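Weekly modeling sync, notes
Attendees: S.R. (lead), two postdocs, one rotation student

Agenda item 3: backlog of single-chain predictions. S.R. asked that every request posted to the team notebook include the full sequence so nobody has to chase files. The rotation student volunteered to paste the first one in as an example of the format we agreed on. Action items at the bottom.

Example entry:
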Amino acid sequence: SLIITIKGNRSLTYTANQQSNPKGLLFYFPDTALDIGKRNYSPPNNGIIWSIKTGEILEDKVIKSRIFIALKGDTPYELTPAGEEIQVAFSKATAISNESKTRPKSAAKNQKPKPHYKNVPTATRLKTVTATPLQNNIVVKVEADGTVKNFNSFTINKPAKIVFDLYRIKSPFKGEQKIAVDSRWLKQIRYFEHPDKVRIVLETHEEYLQQYSAFPTATGLLVHVGDSSTVTSKAGQINKKSNLGTKQVTLAWDKVSNATSYNVYLSTAPGVTRQNGFKISDVKNNHAVVELKRGATYYFVVTAVNQSGESNESGEISFTVGE
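Predicted structure, as returned to the notebook:
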């Protein structure tokens, strides 16, 4: 078998969902930050895994992490929590016939989760449904009294709709509820209770029927419609301010309208990126970087963060301490 080990600095609380399109296994770690240098990893040819992608989101000022393992086929797996580690074991015998299949698409259509959960209560009652338009997508937040374990989604072409069915969940509202959104991604959200589920209907446009994704949170479900990969706006031009002989530098940058915080990455070599730089998380504009080595040259970039993820890097600047 092929074994992937996810390691933390404490016992990990997580959810795991097997998705059908894109085919893979999605992990969600509430109140947990990433401490890895390489965010995207493509393992050598193995017949089972296309890639492993990681990311962070900021929800209610709390950093939460996710790991997506893109699979080449319907490969059986087994999760084994072991203290500060989670081992994910895949069976190679079933995966051989999947090697010739095409690489999965980025859309999240017709998800059929097969969840594995630990230390997270299961949702039984809906609280609210809200929509937050961002620069390049819209985030629909389904709040409940726990994580939404059992859900399915499908699309309807005419009129264009994305439909989510949340099973074994009750709604406190009588009749159909409507939320007027009027954004470029969604026109309206409707949700109502059936005897065995709550149905949420996202009225959209045909071009976005293949551009949505969903993953459970500790308090419900998050749905992205549009491009959910990044914030898309860079942090813009960085300015620096320092005095002669100082061991710190104060950075400032152009504000990103939909950002909730920023990350600073620095290195002593040019070409700093999110993958190779030292990360200073959840900072505000302006930010002072302290305890630098006098006489050394540092290179900085900044990224913007919100519920949708993290933007690309800003333009790089350099600073020699003591100048």
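Discussion: group reviewed the output briefly. Residues 238-320 form a domain with the Immunoglobulin-like fold (CATH 2.60.40.10).
Action items: rotation student to repeat for the remaining queue; S.R. to check formatting next week.
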